[in-house]
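Many introductory courses stop at the sequence. We go one step further.
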Amino acid sequence: MTQDTTTNPAEIGKFNTLKVIAITDNGAFLDAGELGEILLPNRFLPDDCQIDSLVTVFIYLDSADRLIATSQKPLAQVGEFASLKVVQVNKMGAFLDWGLPKDLLVPYNQQHTKMEVGKYYLVRVFLDQRTERIAASSKLDKFIDIWPAEYNDGEQVSLTIANKTDLGFKAIVNDLHWGLLYDNEIFQPLRAGRKITGYIKKVRDDGRLDLILTRGGKGKVIDFADKFIAFLQDNDGFTSLNDKSNPELIKRTLDVSKKTFKATVGNLLKKGKISIEKNGIKLL
């Protein structure tokens, strides 16, 4: 999760770097600009905290609806998507465990389908501008950009995996656009809410995005080369996998296709980083 390192303006539901302006028996008071002075309780104070120190904190409303600062890291901040577990349902809506003492509310009017205790749902965390309360919504389409995406083929993007479809997995691109990963190009286990790096395979004429998890061509080989070397290092510099190995075994072991595996091996062999042995591949 990316933390906000700016000192102004402070934002509710996000990480902020704020200055300590007073230290009391209850903790440190932080200068949050237009939000006023916000308490960082003693249990979250850094050991070397003093007046004028800068501390990075998350700001939210506690159970008494008071602004409070914490060094605890929620599973998502305002503007982000996350897969969260329902821990309670009452007349107000569903409450999600997002890693903070006060659970995150999904009001009934923000539920795409009725939520049930114990199940996980992909939601968007947002700030209710009227109440200044942080809430979540599973009505994801309302947070997706309505304008056609402007990406280049092969461009690296951040993905949040969404629901499974007949063709593959839908994914949210850069927290802004929908895209699709096709089943026959997925070589690793995926689940809703997983954050992963991907690439734009194609921008269609209608603006829809086809996605892929590995860069095409030479870039794909380079992407996997470092991972393969790390795999060899973790296995005493040797693997019994080779060009005769079953594609499913390669996919299960390395999370890549046999085609990518062979291309990577060939590239590393030319560079003198590996050698082909009688019973496998050795790291030099």
